[in-house]
Amino acid sequence: MMRIPQELVGRAAQAVIDLNGPGRYVHWGFIQISVANLVVICLMVVVFVAAILVPFPRHGGDDR
């Protein structure tokens, strides 16, 4: 199994996401949330809804 050096993974992540700047926030009245947290919450809701709507695989010939 080929192992990828940790510093290479770290550099690749740094190239995609720049965390050196100030955070961006969304304001809705008294609600204030960072954009990063809002994206994570939205993805969690999408996964939750998909888990409810996508049917479980069924075995053929089983009448339960």
Summarize, please:
This protein has 64 residues and is α+β, with helices and mostly antiparallel strands. It is 47% helix and 12% strand. Strand 1 and strand 2 (31-34) form a beta hairpin.
Mind explaining what this structure looks like?
By secondary structure, this protein is of the alpha+beta class. The protein has a domain of 40 residues. The protein contains two helices and two strands. Strands 1-2 form a two-stranded antiparallel sheet. The model has no long low-confidence stretch (mean pLDDT 80).
**Mean of pLDDT:** 80
Q: Which outline best applies?
A: flat
Largest sheet at a glance?
Answer: 2 strands, antiparallel
- Main β-sheet, spatial strand arrangement: 1-2
Low-confidence stretches: none
* N-to-C series of helices and strands: HEEH
Q: Tell me the radius of gyration.
A: 20 Å
User: What would you call the structural class?
Assistant: alpha+beta
User: Percent range for helical residues?
Assistant: 40-55%
- Count of runs of 4 or more consecutive helical residues: 2
Amino-to-carboxy terminus distance: 42 Å
Proportion in β-strands? 5-15%
Number of strands: 2
